[in-house]
C-alpha cells in the first residue's frame, strides 16, 4: 500500500503483466501514475535480439489506468518499434522515491531526460550530469533503487572500464537491453 501525498486514502493499485521478448514484466500503478516496473530475472538470454515475441498485455488489461496504458504502450514500442519511443508520452510516476526531493530522484530524472536510446554513461558521468561529480557511489545506489527500470534507463549506466556492472534484472538482461538498443540504433542509422 502506497500512501498518497495528501495522507488521504492509499492509492488504488492496479497490476498489469506485459509479455515481452525478455519475459513477463509486471507493472503496478494507480490513477496518479506508475508505481513500479518489475523485471523478470533472466538466467538465459532469449535467442537472437530479434525475439519473435510480440509485446502484449497478458493480465490486467481490462482495468488499466491511463498511466498504465501509457506505460505498456511505451514498453511495447521500446521492444518492438524503438524509433517511436521518443514521440510517446512518458507515463506519470507515483512512486514515493520519485515524489521526494533527493539526489536519487535528481539522478533518475537526469538519466530519463539526458541519456537517450542506444547511449551509455558511466556512473561518474551520470553523477556529473546530475550535478555532483563526486557522487558516483550514490549514483550506484540510485540505480539499485530505481522503481521504473527500462523507462528510467538504469541499464544504460555502466562502469567506466566498460564493464556492464550490476543490474536489478541481472547482467544478462542488462546486456540484452544494451545490445537490443545498439542493433536497433544501427538499423535506424
Automatic annotation (TrEMBL):
Outline the extent of the Methylated-DNA-[protein]-cysteine S-methyltransferase DNA binding domain.
Answer: 105-182
State one Pfam family annotation: DNA_binding_1
> Does this entry carry the keyword Phosphoprotein?
yes
What's the main place this protein lives?
A: nucleus
Enzyme Commission numbers on file? 2.1.1.63
Q: Which reaction does it catalyse?
A: a 6-O-methyl-2'-deoxyguanosine in DNA + L-cysteinyl-[protein] = S-methyl-L-cysteinyl-[protein] + a 2'-deoxyguanosine in DNA; a 4-O-methyl-thymidine in DNA + L-cysteinyl-[protein] = a thymidine in DNA + S-methyl-L-cysteinyl-[protein]
Q: Which gene encodes it?
A: Mgmt
Indicate what this protein is called per its UniProt record. Methylated-DNA--protein-cysteine methyltransferase
